[in-house]
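Objective 1b: paired records.
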Amino acid sequence: MRQVETQYPPTRLLWLVPFMLIMLFGASSAAQTLLPLNTEVSGAVASSDTVSYLLELPTPGEINLHITGWVATLNWGIDYDRVYMTNASGDPVWIEEFGSETDPFLSHMLSDPDDIVIRIGQAGNYVLDLHSGDYRNTSGDPLTQQFTITAAFVSTADVHEVNDTPEAARSLEIGATTSGYQWRVTPTSEVWNDEEYFTFNVPTPGVFTWHLSNWTATLNWSADFDRMYLYDTSGAAIFGGTSTGSQTDPYLRHMLYSDTQTEECTITANLTGPGIYYARFHSGSGYSIDPWSLSTEFLQVDDDHEPNDSVETATITENGVEMEAWQWKSVGQTIEAQGDDDFYAFTALGAGVLTVSMTEWISTYNWGADYDRLQL
């Protein structure tokens, strides 16, 4: 099966072709024939002529052009056969490596049969042109091509699109499952580099977990690899703690490949405060006609004593009364829950022995780290 683009996006070519060149190499001046999707159609085109089809795409998706009976012109020195596709603006959806700004074909010198895969990132009308090339018999007489063509279509309709910005973020319901596609909205074949923004609201600090399945990861440091970002209510990136990015690219997680045990990518964030957060999934060079699936869960860390990180905000205790609390820094909206300080105040009725009993406390047995300690 012939692919019309590489896995990683090449440099984009500018479309600067004058109108007369479009008439020569691109769209035919002949009337366009509607090419129904998923239906075989018989066609004919004279030597060095072009037949033009109209495709009406109801959604973004992938087209597999299956062409049979076509005779290729395997000669670079004459008018060889080639395939073009333009969008409603007249721009080519793709230019293959042997095409150019002046002759923007997406395929050439077809086989019999031939399958050409064309990815389209937006619903709408598109024009497909098949140029015959200089097709002649052994006597040199021009011949008419007789062929069949089928435009098999796979939809990548994403209910969340367009959600490429924080302002267009879609709401995530905690505990629910949603799905979508790594498929950018564009009237071209450049469907990679999709952005998915989601927003969610948590009532307390706690552990937020994303379970991402069937995601196409880009396991290549030299490419635009996929990554996930987290932002606070103001839109500022939350970086630190378990982040793997940097100050210049503060992603929370990168290369979201599936865990071999669960067949999903699990991402967790220790949120230090309640409120609205934003999650951004950057597809990078990856794309797929298979949908990804995303589910979420949230474990609350609801410490009634917080904030009690100073003498001024100390929690008043009573003698002999058991209290429940968490080792969880609950300040602002970060993912750095470690380093919590809990201040408690009590009144000594006289001289005596103070006993503090603690259960399920997690100690840090490392003199080189910020180990836990009790001060009076």
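Objective 1b, second protein:
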Amino acid sequence: MFNLLRSKKKEFGFKANPSLKSFGKDLNEAQISAMIHTFLLVMMAEDAVLNLKMYNYIHEQFECLGFDLKQDYVYKYAKTDDNQAYSILKKLSMEQKKWYAISLRAMLFDIGVKASKNQILQFELIGDKTYNPYVKQEIVRSL
């Protein structure tokens, strides 16, 4: 018999990682901040209004890693330079790069928001600048 009262919500991005706890513990604040910075770059690649659904997705993703976007990022790391963020992300392990790409792709293709061409191009640019081979795989998988 199945339980009708408990609907199972599909998990996207970092939340889909079966090793979420250890994944989160292996990341330091600078790495998380660089990830957030680049997520926001992709979200804001479209000059239109702030996409609240994407912003909430970013907040939820990093909250599950124990990082409060509103308190920690805004006050400590908002002035992060793009190149500094890319440099930090280049040094992620391959497993970390994989889950970073999966999570960012989910923001563009899985949460019910149509990604713009500029956002996809920004995602590709970040993949190139951070030497992340998984970004291209995730884009191809989604198109």
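The radius of gyration is 15 Å. Residues 32 and 67 are 8 Å apart (CA to CA).
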